[in-house]
Amino acid sequence: MTRKSLLLSLAAMILTAGLSANADTFKNKQTGEVFYGFRTLKTTVDKTLVYNENEKKLLPIKLLDYEVTMDNNGRRNSVVLVSITDAEALLSESVTKAICNAIIKGANSGPRFVLVKIDCPGGRGEYMKEICSTISKIDICPVVAYISGGPFGGAHSAAAAIALACDKIYIAPNASMSALGPFVSTSTGHSEVDFLKTYSPDTLASYSVYAATLAENNQRPGILSKALLDKRIGLVEVVDTSGVQSIVQKDLMLADQTVVKTICEGLASSATATTESASTTGTEPGVAETHSRVLQLPPNEAIRFKMVDAITDSIQSLLADMDSSDAQVASSQEINKTSKQFVAAKRNIGLSLSRISFFENRTATLEEQLKIIEEQERTTPVRRSRTVNEVGGFTRGRVTIPSSDYYYYYDQPMTMEQTGMDNQQITPNNTMVTPNQNTGPYRTTPRSRFNRVQGSETVVSNEPAVASADVTRELSFVLNNLIGEYRTAIALSKRWVGALPPEITIQALQRNLESAIALSDNLRFRTQ
To answer: What's the pTM value of the predicted model, to 2 decimals?
Structure first.
């Protein structure tokens, strides 16, 4: 051994003795030089940014030139806490991105591990997959899940899959993993049926194989993981003639297998009964009925099936189990901030939808009144004559926006005073006119068309009780407000993806906006 190598070895031994178990070890394959620090996910060309404890800064190095040992020598004595505990966590694209950014940023800061706290009723599959994919890419430090027993009672449907992506899973004694969480209307603002459709939608079934792959990569049973996302799956615990126990789908049992225990019945096995119930009552199966049929794993069952690693009653006891009792816990604040902004945007969209509903109804009433007034002007016996320009007939088509979901977004109906409208109803010949309404949530009439006809004709009529010009002015005023509200709702919906009610699309709002603009243009032609 050369003198230089001996000195380097002695220096390494001194450094190792003088440092707490707090960082990773990097050894140059050519020179044998050793330093402590941690690597990040940041790269520049062919190099990776690595924190060097000796120099107290990030330096670009070629990792292929080093032997890297993850022994906590050089790692910071901290734990980054990322909370997925809001009802909107897996409903908003913006909140999902904030969660992913918090996980990546936390891992890059060199903590002992990233702790993902989960108490969530579920949500959309594409957002679940985005977070799971982010966690799966974190290979610079462990990512640990803690399923806490908060308002939602654990990790359910899509949220359970996020836990499966983590390296280790802890669960609170009062929490569970399930395909459907308990119904919490006060925290989510949903009715029972909407709660089911929003947090445990049928579309999650298409992600069940993905969830199974996540679980199997971490040595957890894939079949249970599939059932967390696919409510149709029924599972049984069976024993074969050789005495081997296993979990299988009910409809895939073999002849030599005997049922030991039914784990979950699944909705598919009772499809006929569910259909009959729905046709009799006119309603869909509620949360209680669905909850009793789908997979529910309390802590003891989750431990027995190896879906989780340990039961713990607090984050502090979790830290102790991870040999990090003295670590400082740093919580990400960006997620909570983004979630609040999303809730505010959702409420503003609901307010716009409520105003849109009011202005649409008023527009329909005024259109009908204007039609009746013009018919009177054409057919009433002669009293005076005047010359008017004739314009082709105009029938406005629009997609009817369902109003049954507005309670979720804006719980106060619009009044005349809130819209700035006069409380006076304009009615020709003092007769109240009620416009015909489309039936069904998505019935659409043909696109609006109108053509200006050149020339004029003489029309003789009595003056109606209300002049058409008065109704036209009010209709123009209402349309201007309607167009403004549509533009506001569309802009917010594009900025905060996921904030619209599931039954309403941006495309439907856009079509209605174009129809309102067409009618407004028609009014301008008629008054020229």
So the answer is: 0.74
